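DM from R.C. (forwarded with permission)

"hey, sorry to bug you on a friday — could you get me a structure for this? deadline for the figure draft is monday and I only need the backbone to look sensible"
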Amino acid sequence: MLDNALTVGMTPSEFWYDDPELYFNYVRVYEKKVKENQQHIWQIGARMCQALQSTVIFPAGVIDKSVINAMPKYPDCPFTEEDKPAEELTEAETEYLRQKAIVHFTNWVNGFKKNKQGR
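My reply, with the result:
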């Protein structure tokens, strides 16, 4: 797992001595960066495709109108937020998640208090 941690940007000391949850935060951030990079690459390609399709001057003898019309359609955006259906949670699930967050943050604050007392 150290190799994976190094890939996502953790230092060895963070991996071995810090909170284990930190690894999962690094993984989430790394996945988000990869997704944003792929989105950026797609946007550049889509703009290039639009530019090629909107040109009114065809280089003589190189490209004719039938070639432009025969070009395949540029693929749809791989990551769109509209594709995700809105997730509806029941009231019990909402209450569970709220209690879970309270416990998590209470433990987080208490961890800082213990570290402060130990110094």
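R.C.: lifesaver. The radius of gyration is 25 Å.
me: no worries. The CA atoms of residues 53 and 69 lie 9 Å apart.
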